[in-house]
Amino acid sequence: MKTIVFFGIYDPGYSRNRILTQGFKENGWEVLVCRADARSGFFYKYVELYRQFKLIKAKKIDLVLVAFPGQTVVLMAKVLFRRKKIVFDMFLSLFDSNVYDRKVYGKYSPKAFKDWLLDWHSCALSDVILLDTNEHISYVSSQFHISSKKMIRVPIGADTSVFRPLQTPAKNDMFTLHFHGMFIPLQGIEYILGAAKILINEPMKFVIVGSGQEYKKAVQIVVEQQLTNVALLGKMPFEKLPEMIAASDMCLGIFGHTEKAARVVPNKVFEYIAMNKPVITADTKAVREFFTDGVDMTMCASADAASLAEAIRKVQKDAASCARIAQKAYERSCAEFAPAPIVKNLLKSPLLS
After folding, report:
1. CA distances from 144 to 22, 93, 139 (A)
2. Please, how many CA atoms are within 13 Å of residue 185, restricted to the half-sphere of its CB?
3. How far is 323 from 300, CA to CA, in rounded Å?
4. Checking phi first, is residue 27 left (phi over 0); if not, alpha (psi -120 to 50) or beta?
5. DSSP-assigned states of every residue in 296-350
6. Which helix (H) or strand (E) holds 196?
7. Cα–Cα distance for residue pair 117/124, rounded to 1 Å
8. Closest C-alpha among 64, 73, 72, 69 to residue 32
9. Residue 170's pLDDT is what?
10. Which of 13, 182, 16 is nearest to 91 (CA)?
11. pLDDT at 31
12. pTM of the entire structure?
């Protein structure tokens, strides 16, 4: 049995970390954990990491994976595990997320410079870098001047122990659309609400779950435009999501116009298809790396409420085609985007030999 160490200051319950952990286990690897809680004090985090390292350093270790988010601890992993291959699950760029996507601060600010340095040095120190799409690989390689030859595409996928087909509740005449998210710009909540306005006189209901950066903006739009077909439910327990998805007729991906939106296929899309639910999401290069419009996904134009509304109408009117597309996506989810096949494909890479 081979052994991998998941190392860092990370949340083991976060979907990316949970999926990779489960995937390695299902491929017959022993998973050791060397982590500190992000809520601990700054100094204590690193003391705790070193303490846990001492507990496992005598064990036979084949790989060290710096789990997301790991930019601040790649150097420590490199020092502690000197003779081991360091795999950095970058997953996303701090610089890109905070500066361009969420617009937390300007690109020439000290904080932006710090993020850029963290991204750059963690990539430079790593032996292997994991990213979720080829579009993301191209961006990171170009932005931080790191060779793409040390990068591997690892799709996000879904935790199929949580997201799996459930018995669908009895339906009424209302066509229900589900969305959940953190209301960040790339998700394009304003375009979902724009589509809801166009479809307000049709028998449809938009059920929107979550909270975050643009939640107040969403509430304001719903109130000012009197969108009676929209239910903003706020933050819900994670355990409730599967049953809410199961109760829907259609699920919504992301529709924003940020550069990052064009580079990612979000968690939610993989979660929806793992539950055999039809999905509409924006037509981007990243989405087309994995899916084909009209075959295993329904796509619409990015940042275009009218295009989204038209796609929803089309799906509602053709239930047979909708079910066929959902089934094809579900089959691919089982074969390619569950934890076991994700890690199985990762382990085929010569970079990990």
Report:
1. 31, 10, 8
2. 14
3. 18
4. alpha
5. TBEEE-TT-HHHHHHHHHHHHH-HHHHHHHHHHHHHHHHHHSSHHHHHHHHHTSG
6. helix 189-198
7. 10
8. 64
9. 63
10. 16
11. 98
12. 0.93
What are the CA-CA distances from residue 315 to residues 9, 276, 340 (Å)? 43, 15, 31
Q: What angle do CA 177, 183, 187 make, to 5 degrees?
A: 70
> Residue 30 has what DSSP assignment?
E
CB 38 within 8 A of CB 14: no
CA proximity to 312, closest of 168, 164, 178, 166: 178
> Which residue, chain included where needed, has tokens 């995937």?
23
Residue recorded with tokens 């166009």: 198
CA 57 to mean position of chain CA atoms: 32
Encoded tokens for 125: 């120190």
How many DSSP H helices and E strands does the chain contain?
14, 12
Going from the first residue of the chain to its last (353 residues), give the mean pLDDT of each consecutive group of 10, the final group possibly shorter.
96 95 98 92 90 95 97 97 96 93 90 96 97 97 97 96 86 88 93 98 96 94 97 93 94 93 94 97 97 97 97 93 96 98 98 92
* Alpha-carbon span 154 to 334, nearest angstrom: 15
